[in-house]
Design goal:
heterodimer, A: alpha+beta, Rossmann fold, 10 helices, B: 554 residues, mainly alpha, MetI-like fold, two-stranded antiparallel ribbon, disordered C terminus
Chain lengths: 342, 554
């Protein structure tokens, strides 16, 4: 179990702390995604956990042992970077077996283990290849195998899939999840991509400007974003507060308690002839499966909505009615069930 | 298809036309003299006589010279690398305050005129100097120390260029996998640096083995390298055959070494995928004290001869005085010189301006040609050969070039013995490789897609040159000019052969003063050295001011 308490990291050339009094817990066997925009301090947090950045305040402990003064190479963690950082002067097998050779394992044993790991990451028989001849996805798989070879107490992943293109990223995210679960690895993942976080992690922590905004299981964070910015970062299309939020909530039959606000996915507002909200279409864009609309709703303001492709799709300037679906909405800062569920 | 072939042909021809001028100059003023000199070694009274060369190489004195060159250069190279790597680490990997100034300081000795460094070390180790009681004057230790002094810059810049771009996260990944700092160094860092270290070591060995001014001023008559022996054989003993034989041997060794350096350099360019500043440097911490103290020691070692030189030049008979500097406007004690030292400085200046112009003109042409990236493998190989050809003057000893000029350019239509252009041409040949090495990597680094983007936005070829190439090139152009000027000011090997007695350059005058007995002459030599060193460093200061890693790609 990883315990981070009150951790602060400050660079000498910056006015503000890169990581500002952050506390985190990560139970053994879980995968935690630290999610934040670039520059939010998430990578610095990861480096601090790895022992690569000096702490200004706070502590990092594993299984109750404080790791202050324990150098990186004795922590028993493994680190995997965005661009793999494979050793270019070694083959794939050389990279994967690196840690085992450091431990002076017998070469037959190393070879066997390397083959097993390459099998696990889906690259059987790649051992003799040169690292420079690999594709981006293959490089990340090799980096993952190299990190898993040490059987780390904690695997640290720094934007492991960000350098890959979209299709590959989605596929590799599910593979990564399966591999981590199969190996029972405790992992701390840092990413700016919420889909990657949802695909790989059990738990999620949101960071912004060096501070921890919210932490919890993936479901908890998703159902109740801490604030409007968190909601937008998680992928909610529209965030409403005050009277506007109340209007949508009432129209959807969700009572009148809007709390700190309401986050709506795009599909939470759908064009329908009997919809209780009405407004004028400001923009319409056809996507596979639906028409994405931007609608100026009376008493609410500009919101995102969707329309059916089958019926005549609404055009700019048309008046439309919208039906709220509160199962696709979240009340900010409220850990309870979605506002629409009975 | 045929249209494509023909445009490719015409572009190839265009390149060839561009290359024609520098090729012709190189042919006449480098290949011809060197070939002429090689010929002299192998032909005895008109007949081919390779056995004669072997006989000369078997002489006792020659064997002693070869042995001394070999072991002194090896020792100097080893010391330079061992000291240079920690200094490189401190100056390129740690966020140390003032590290830019320190980097500039480490590079400074490299452009110091060799005779100035020789005089400075003499001052340091002379019986009256600060290290006088160790009796190092005239010993190999002083010579090797001076070689190290010169060449640390090569290691720091070459390895630094590589290390400075090496992503720290690669080492961190290894550390996280359980590698201790020593294991990280052994299994990750050193393998990545090895091409740079090998390349630097081969260049350093080359410079040591062909060092001339330092050995001549420090070695006296007891210690001689191949280079000084060629000089002595030619000027003192008039044994041109033996001198030729030694030159041939040196040529072979130099070509082999240049080949090694070239091979590792291409390997290095492949590996180098540069990381941003944040990912390469870190703050110094307590466990860095061993490398920090080595660096402090090396910096003191670099400063000592220079400080001593300046201090001593200001002393006469134990008291402070400007007398040595005032003497620079005279012809020395007893009127021993043919011209005053200040006249010699003026000569040096004029020659350096001519040589720099010539070197820049040729250097730009060559750089433009060798930095093209042709698709056809044949053309690519052709350019590689061309590139190597223009590097040759870097390794072929200046003495050989000067000597070659004397034996080949002495009859019509190329009787240049009395031409005032002879010295500038020879110096331009020496400076040319450095100019090309400064410019061509920058030219190569301009992404062709930038030119294509500019062209697609409606820029004419001239406008592309002005708006895309020139903004990246002006700094290296300035740097190369400063570099060529500094090299020319300090050039001693070829100049000492070719200069007319009534128009000596300052390095030649300094050597004349050092070889004369007497305190006054040595005082004048020191003062003249300070002046020459200052002018050179000021010219070279441009290079550091515009901050480009030119030496990194030597």
């Amino acid at each position: 179990m990883l315990t981070v308490r009150d951790l602060t990291v400050r660079f000498d050339d910056a006015d503000t702390a890169a990581v500002d009094h952050v506390s985190l817990d990560l139970p053994a066997g879980d995968v935690l995604a630290v999610l934040g925009p670039s520059g939010s301090g998430k990578s610095t947090l990861l480096r601090a956990v790895a022992g690569l950045e000096p702490l200004q305040t706070g502590s990092v402990a594993y299984d109750g042992h404080d790791l202050a003064g324990c150098p990186t190479h004795k922590r028993g963690f493994a680190l995997m970077f965005q661009d793999g950082q494979l050793f270019p002067h070694q083959t794939v097998a050389g990279n994967v077996g690196y840690a085992l050779r450091l431990r002076r394992a017998r070469s037959a044993e190393v070879a066997h283990k390397v083959e097993e790991l390459l099998e696990l990451v889906g690259l059987p028989g790649f051992g003799a290849r040169n690292t420079t001849a690999l594709s981006g996805g293959e490089r990340q798989r090799v980096a993952l195998a190299r990190a898993l070879a040490v059987e780390p107490r904690l695997l640290l992943l720094d934007e492991p899939l960000s350098a890959l293109d979209r299709g590959l990223r989605e596929r590799l995210a599910h593979d990564l999840r399966d591999i981590l679960v199969a190996a029972g690895t405790t992992a701390l993942l840092v990413t700016h991509d919420q889909e990657e976080a949802f695909a790989v992690a059990d738990r999620m922590a949101l960071m912004r400007s060096g501070r921890l905004v919210q932490a919890g299981t993936v479901g908890q964070v998703w159902r109740a974003p801490a604030d409007p910015e968190a909601a937008r970062f998680l992928g909610y299309a529209t965030v409403l507060v005050g009277a506007a939020a109340a209007r949508v909530l009432e129209a959807g039959g969700g009572g009148s308690d809007v709390g700190q606000g309401l986050a709506l996915r795009r599909s939470a507002l759908r064009v329908g002839p009997a919809g209780p909200l009405h407004g004028r279409v400001l923009a319409a864009r056809i996507t596979p499966g639906a028409v994405r609309l931007s609608v100026d709703v009376e008493g609410v303001g500009e919101v995102h909505a969707v329309g059916d492709l089958e019926a005549a799709p609404p055009a700019v300037g048309n008046d439309v009615h919208l039906v709220p679906d509160l199962t696709r909405a979240a009340r900010l800062g409220d850990p309870g069930p979605a506002p629409g569920t009975p | 298809m045929s249209r494509q072939t023909s445009t490719r042909w015409s572009s190839g021809l265009g390149l060839l036309a561009l290359a024609a001028v520098p090729l012709a100059v190189l042919g006449v003023f480098f290949v011809l003299p060197v070939a002429g000199m090689v010929g002299r070694g192998f032909f005895t009274s008109g007949s081919f006589d390779p056995v004669g060369v072997l006989e000369i190489l078997g002489r006792g004195q020659v064997r002693r010279v070869l042995w001394f060159t070999l072991w002194a250069s090896t020792a100097a190279t080893a010391v330079t690398v061992v000291l240079g790597v920690p200094v490189t680490f401190v100056l390129h990997r740690l966020r140390l305050p003032g590290r830019r100034v320190l980097r500039a300081f480490v590079v400074m000795p490299f452009v110091m005129p060799t005779v100035v460094v020789g005089v400075a070390f003499r001052t340091l180790v002379a019986s009256s100097g600060p290290l006088g009681r160790w009796h190092l004057d005239g010993t190999p230790v002083a010579i090797i120390a001076a070689m190290v002094f010169f060449n640390l810059a090569v290691v720091v810049r070459t390895v630094g260029a590589l290390w400075g771009g090496l992503d720290r996260r690669r080492e961190e990944a290894a550390a996280a996998l359980g590698a201790s700092p020593v294991q990280v160094l052994r299994t990750v860092t050193l393998p990545a640096l090895m091409p740079g270290i090998v390349s630097a070591a081969s260049v350093v060995f080359l410079f040591c083995a062909s060092s001339f001014g330092v050995v001549l001023t420090l070695g006296g008559l007891r210690y001689s390298t191949v280079e000084t022996e060629i000089y002595l054989l030619t000027t003192q003993f008039l044994d041109l055959r033996a001198a030729s034989a030694l030159s041939v041997l040196q040529l072979v060794v130099v070509c082999a070494l240049l080949y090694v350096a070239q091979r590792t350099r291409t390997a290095q360019e492949q590996v180098l995928d540069r990381a941003g500043h944040r990912h390469t440097t870190r703050r110094p911490c307590a466990r860095d004290w061993p490398v920090l103290s080595v660096t402090a020691g090396v910096l003191a070692f670099l400063a000592a001869p220079l400080v001593t030189l300046v201090a001593r030049s200001l002393q006469v008979d134990g008291g402070w005085s400007l007398q040595s500097y005032r003497a620079l406007t005279t012809t020395g004690p007893g009127g021993a010189l043919l011209v005053t030292a200040s006249q010699a400085l003026a000569n040096s200046w004029r020659v350096a301006v001519d040589a720099t112009l010539l070197a820049m003109l040729l250097g730009v042409l060559v750089s433009v040609v060798v930095s093209r990236r042709p698709r056809a493998p044949l053309e690519r190989r052709g350019l590689a050969v061309l590139d190597a050809l223009f590097m040759l003057p870097l390794g072929v000893s200046a003495v050989t070039v000067g000597f070659g000029f004397l034996v080949t350019l002495d009859r019509p239509p190329l009787d240049l013995r009395s031409s005032v252009l002879l010295v500038p041409i020879a110096q331009a040949m020496v400076a040319l490789p450095l100019v090309v090495r400064t410019l061509s990597p920058v030219l190569r680094s301009v992404d062709p897609r930038q030119r294509q983007a500019a062209a697609s936005l409606g820029a004419s070829p001239l406008r592309v040159l002005v708006t895309v190439d020139l903004p990246t090139l002006w700094r290296p152009l300035l740097a190369a000019t400063g570099f060529a000027f500094a090299v020319s000011l300090g050039e001693f090997g070829a100049t000492s052969f070719l200069v007319r007695p009534d128009r000596p350059t300052l390095p030649v005058v300094i050597y004349q003063l050092v070889s004369r007995p007497g305190e006054q002459s040595f005082g004048m030599a020191m003062a003249a050295s300070v002046v020459l060193g200052t002018v050179t460093v000021a010219a070279m200061g441009l290079v550091e001011r515009v901050r480009i890693g030119s030496l990194g790609t030597l």
